[in-house]
From TrEMBL:
It is found in: Nucleus. SMART domains: BRLZ. GO terms for cellular component: nucleus. This is BZIP domain-containing protein. Residues 99-126 form a coiled coil. It comes from Zingiber officinale (Ginger). The keyword DNA-binding applies. Its main location: nucleus. The keyword Repeat does not apply.
Amino acid sequence: MQHGFLLAFLIDVAYPNKMISKNEKRAFMASPCGTSSGTSRRLNTQSEEDLMNRRKQRRMLSNRESARRSRMRKQKHLGDLTAEASRLREENCRMMTALALAERHCAAAEAENAVLRAQVAELDLTLQALNNILRRCAFAGCGADEECMGQWSSMNADAAAAAARAASADVLGYVFNQRREEDGQGKV
């Protein structure tokens, strides 16, 4: 009994202001000699530290693995973006080539349209000249004689020459403007 009293006194001195609970005090006093409890407490503290160290090591390993996976995801994403950028550049190049080809075809079609417009103008003038000759012939009452045919030939040649000059001026002006636009100088 004296031993228990002494032990309680020592506990009160070691843990002033009731820093130890009554249950802990009872458990401490119940151990034989009192010293084994201190030893077991040190062992418990050391095993707790070992447990905490192991948990800390596991957390560190887990964090490293997570960081490694994150780096790999970022690297894969960067690779995917690089491949997509390369594919888009190639597609852009193909589209630019197709656009240039379409512009050349458009320019050729516009030049051909200008020639066809000139030919229409020439044929329109020829038709007008023929209608005039037919009216004169019908008015004069002549048939297909030399005088009527001579008038038709001279009028047809004059009309054809005028239409050809207009058509060539149209085409040359168009081609000249196209080349200036391609050079970035604009139309004249």
